[in-house]
Amino acid sequence: METFRKYIKADVQSVEPQPDWGIKVLDVGHYIHPAGKSYPDAQHPEDYFFEWNKGRVLKEYQLVYIAAGKGIFEAKGIGQVEVQPGTLFFLYPGTWHRFKPDLDSGWTEYWVGFEGHYANHLMNQACFNPEKPLLQMGFNAEFINIFIQLIDTIKFGGLGSNQLAACLTIQLLGLVYASALLKNQSNNRKTQLINNIKYSIHENLNSDISPEELAANHNVSYAWFRKAFKEITGQSPGQYQLNLKIQKACRMLSETDLSISEIAYQNGFVSEYYFSRIFKNKMFKSPSNYRKEILPKATR
Q1: 60 contacts 114 by C-beta, under 8 angstroms
Q2: Domain residue ranges of the chain, discontinuous segments joined by +
Q3: Using one digit for the tens of pLDDT, what is the confidence trace for 146-204?
Q4: What would be the CATH architecture of the domain defined by 4-183?
Q5: Domain 204-300 has CATH 1.10.10.60
Q6: pTM over 0.85
Q7: Peptide bond into 40 cis (omega under 30)
Q8: What's the CA gap between 128 and 226, in Å, rounded?
């Protein structure tokens, strides 16, 4: 596909009035920025050109899709984020931003700029968040095909091209919206599954059930389970389980007269010696010293 870009603002006055579809396409393009070249290139119109050290603020929405290559993106309140192939990001009106391809790789970009009352309505949906403007779309054939249709519509013009461009932009946003919802649902399913496993850990604190067994009991691989668990809780499954056991042991030391050996056994430790060593490593004192220090406080 040949590269193409058009900025329509300069042509608006020469176009006869058109029905208001709620979205007006202002610019659209497909460009392959070569490696080793500064970005943006000199063909960018003055209203859209920016220097990296200054960044840019637009008056419109833009949807930008990076089909190949890599680079970085940054916006107000968002640090620099690495952009990989298949990344889509939104630019919001009045929001400072900057982005550029990696000098060693360049990138291939598709974009469409738009405005309008229906555009405002769509971009105010929950899945479109200025604080999270990036989405990993990956390769989506339908998405690319609609983008190509949009570019061809603007490129060749003709009767009804403005309305068709608006419809195609709405279709693009619909696909992005669906992709974002699926991602959220996937994250919700992941969170629910990890919460179920956390419940299983709580229910089995007095046993020596392993994280591998927990994963198998919930029909997921241990590698996936460990990664997802740490992503959601900030701890590995083993550390989470161990910390709960130590917390329970602390309560038992302060609230019961059970021996240290019995407490170790009821918390699934293989021996009193192993329990004491782990306890001291976590609490910086032995179980017996912990009990001595905590009991006078408990009886006050």
Answers
A1: yes
A2: 4-183, 204-300
A3: 999 999 999 888 878 889 999 999 999 999 988 887 776 666 778 778 888 887 887 77
A4: Sandwich (2.60)
A5: yes
A6: no
A7: yes
A8: 30
